[in-house]
Specification:
The complex is a heterodimer.
Chain A lengths: L1 H27 L4 H9 L5 H11 L7 H13 L13 H36 L8 H10 L2 H15 L19 H38 L2 H8 L4 H12 L1 H25 L4 H10 L3 H29 L1 H6 L3
Helix pairs in contact in A: 1-13, 5-8, 5-11, 6-8, 7-8, 7-11, 8-10, 8-11, 9-10, 11-12, 11-13, 12-13
Chain B lengths: L9 H23 L30 H37 L1 H16 L2 H11 L8 H12 L1 H15 L2 H9 L3 H37 L10 H10 L8 H29 L1 H6 L3 H7 L20 H10 L5
The chains are: A mainly alpha, B mainly alpha.
């Protein structure tokens, strides 16, 4: 339990660092980006909007830093992320309407590729040294293909040329969004290719990592013992795999961050709604409040997912539990 | 130094070869490009031919020239970021692992924070606040990428340093009265080299990937050619819908080849560190050549050894290593 609490402490600290970085960056960057933004916006948006931006970033108010920081934290605690400049609605509202697309797509893809990749890794680690080893260079190459490239090629081939999948968007724009069967079916259909593309690019990593761990584990005495006891092959593989999977789960935390980064691209390529699409538009429009809100949201989501992975590790590896006694 | 020889497996050789080709292109690419990458005076949408090896874009530009010119910035940013991040991770990882105590706690916390914050979003936020002149500066981008990419290496180095710290030879050096810095860099340092090399390759890989991603999203200066901006222009001109594979393909394959070469070299290092992986990557012929009689199976993980100066050991090897603890 102590270990979990300590991890929780680290994440709380990280969250605080993120919040503070968000506060400091626009204020300390060379070139005074906020002042420039206000200059550009003056006359184009309502005076209230300018006042809101000034209040949020403390520009031109001559407030001492610690007071600005206090106001900033106060706003955050009340869930106020400021007003988006381009969408002219509160950032929190814009985010809550978009996040489910991202969570759904990335979540499904992450789970499928972890399960499939790890299972393949177990299998290939078990039958190592056979002809199947030829997958390794292929998987390595797949892994080094930049995601956006893979995605574009998939669209070009399977959506544009062969029409196996819809080209883009998250659902057919002619269907009214709602809880109708037609809409759900359309969402599923449009999700297939994005999920497939994420799988293709992240599956190889899980597979290679698991295979290497499996090879190391199969050399351990307890595996030999399991065979000597006469356990069926399936049980032996299960024994070895359970022990080999721990580093993969520890890596899951790292992978979540990468996947979220990947989501920015998925949405860009497939014209899929979601947080990534918002983020890229926010950068293009210099919509700093929206940008900051998205950064906080993404970081907090990743931290939460990390903590879940830690809890899973805690449940799976009894050593983490006994270690806390010492 | 004999123990630091890189294994001459075909994987490593192929990896080194590909990487060398790209390093040469980084230097000479812009000089050997047949046309200016910006010149849009050619017939648009040409398929690859003798005059345009990789065809032309919708905008009437020569793809091969763009690829050659773009190689430089892509590689330079990748290497700057990779080296800067590795230096950071050496400083943090080595001191955390060796000094221990409160220094270790705070440095570990620092690297955990950087590991948990997702890199690309952080990078996008920092980048968007940069003055627009600096966004095109490879040095600035390289360092910003390094800032988001050092933590993993630091963690791995710390773990290895901690395990080395209590070995006898380090203890001996301490008893002799060697200085702390000397122990860190002369005694422990060389033993970290394989892990360091692997972490450097990994970071360069990460940096090239994340830099081209930024460029692809149009978040760097899109008028400067690199493989990411090439794909940015291809995407914004709907090259995929026009089936212009000769425009989309080359930059993506080039990035993938650089990545594969780094990964292949890394495989070699992995096999060097972990002897159990060494024989499993061999073909049947390679195994016979290496003196490993059987393919690996349960309870038998062949371990390859470099021929030892004592002839007796080589004869005993295959049988004695049948069961590895």
């Amino acid at each position: 339990m102590k270990m979990l609490l300590r991890r929780l402490g680290v994440y709380a600290f990280t969250a605080w660092v993120t919040i503070t970085v968000n506060f400091i960056l626009p204020r300390l960057m060379p070139g005074n980006p906020i002042q420039q933004l206000i200059g550009k916006l003056t006359g184009r948006v309502t005076p209230q909007m300018i006042a809101a931006i000034k209040a949020q970033f403390g520009a031109g108010l001559n407030q001492p830093m610690y007071l600005q920081y206090y106001h900033y934290l106060d706003q955050l605690i009340h869930g106020d992320l400021g007003m988006s400049i381009t969408l002219s609605e509160p950032v929190s509202q814009a985010l809550s309407s978009q996040i489910w697309w991202t969570v759904g797509l990335i979540g499904v893809a992450a789970v499928i590729s972890f399960v499939v990749g790890t299972s393949l890794g177990v299998l290939f680690g078990w039958i190592r040294g056979s002809r199947v080893d030829a997958v390794i260079p292929v998987a390595t190459f797949l892994q080094s293909l930049p995601y956006y490239f893979l995605g574009t090629i998939l669209i070009m081939l399977f959506a544009n040329r062969y029409h196996w999948f819809p080209l883009m968007d998250a659902y057919d724009p002619t269907i009214n969004p709602g809880w109708s069967w037609a809409f759900i079916e359309s969402v599923l259909r449009h999700g297939e290719l994005p999920v497939l593309s994420i799988m293709l690019s992240s599956l190889a990593g899980w597979m290679l990592g698991m295979r290497n761990m499996m090879i190391t584990t199969v050399g351990e005495d307890f595996v030999l013992m399991a065979v000597a006891k006469g356990l069926p092959r399936r049980r032996v593989i299960w024994h070895a795999a359970r022990n080999a999977i721990l580093p993969s789960i520890a890596n899951f935390a790292l992978a979540i961050g990468l996947l979220v980064s990947g989501s920015l691209l998925v949405e860009q390529i497939f014209n899929y709604p979601g947080v990534g699409n918002l983020l890229v538009n926010a950068v293009g429009n210099e919509d700093y409040p929206l940008l900051q809100g998205i950064f906080l949201l993404i970081t907090f989501t990743v931290l939460g997912a990390n903590f879940l992975a830690d809890m899973l590790y805690y449940v799976l590896d009894p050593r983490t539990r006994t270690a806390t006694v010492n | 130094m004999k123990s630091l020889q890189i294994p001459k497996s075909p994987k490593v050789l192929v990896g080194v070869f590909i990487l060398l080709v790209f390093i040469v292109l980084t230097v000479i690419g812009p000089w050997i490009a047949p046309y200016s990458p910006n010149s849009n005076s050619f017939i648009p949408n040409l398929k690859p031919s003798w005059t345009h090896w990789l065809g032309t874009t919708t905008l009437g530009q020569d793809v091969w020239s763009q690829l050659l010119v773009g190689c430089r910035e892509t590689m330079v940013v990748g290497f700057i970021a990779g080296f800067a991040a590795t230096i950071l991770s050496i400083v943090v990882g080595l001191s955390a692992g060796y000094i221990g105590g409160r220094t270790d706690d705070s440095l570990t916390l620092l690297s955990n924070v950087f590991l948990a914050i997702p890199g690309l979003p952080l990078l996008i936020v920092i980048n968007s606040y940069l003055p627009s002149g600096e966004q095109a500066n490879p040095l600035v981008i390289g360092f910003v990428i390094a800032l988001t990419g050092w933590a993993w290496g630091a963690r791995v180095l710390r773990a290895q340093t901690m395990s080395l710290r209590n070995r006898d030879f380090v203890e001996a050096a301490r008893i002799i009265g060697e200085s702390r810095r000397r122990i860190m860099f002369q005694e422990i340092g060389p033993n970290l080299l394989p892990i360091l090399a692997s972490s450097l390759l990994f970071t360069i890989l990460y940096s090239v990937g994340i830099f081209t991603t930024l460029a692809f999203l149009g978040l760097t200066n899109v008028s400067v050619w690199n493989w990411g901006t090439m794909l940015y222009w291809a995407q914004s001109n709907n090259a995929a819908l026009a089936n212009e594979w000769w425009w989309l393909g080359p930059p993506g394959v080039a990035i993938a080849l650089v990545g594969t070469s780094l990964a292949l070299i890394n495989f070699g290092i992995d096999e060097f560190i972990n002897p159990r992986l060494r024989a499993s990557g061999l073909s049947a012929r390679g195994r016979r050549k290496a003196g490993v009689a059987r393919r690996p199976r349960l309870g038998y993980t062949p371990v390859m050894r470099t021929p030892s100066p004592r002839p007796a050991a080589a004869v005993v090897a295959p049988a004695a290593e049948g069961i590895v603890q």
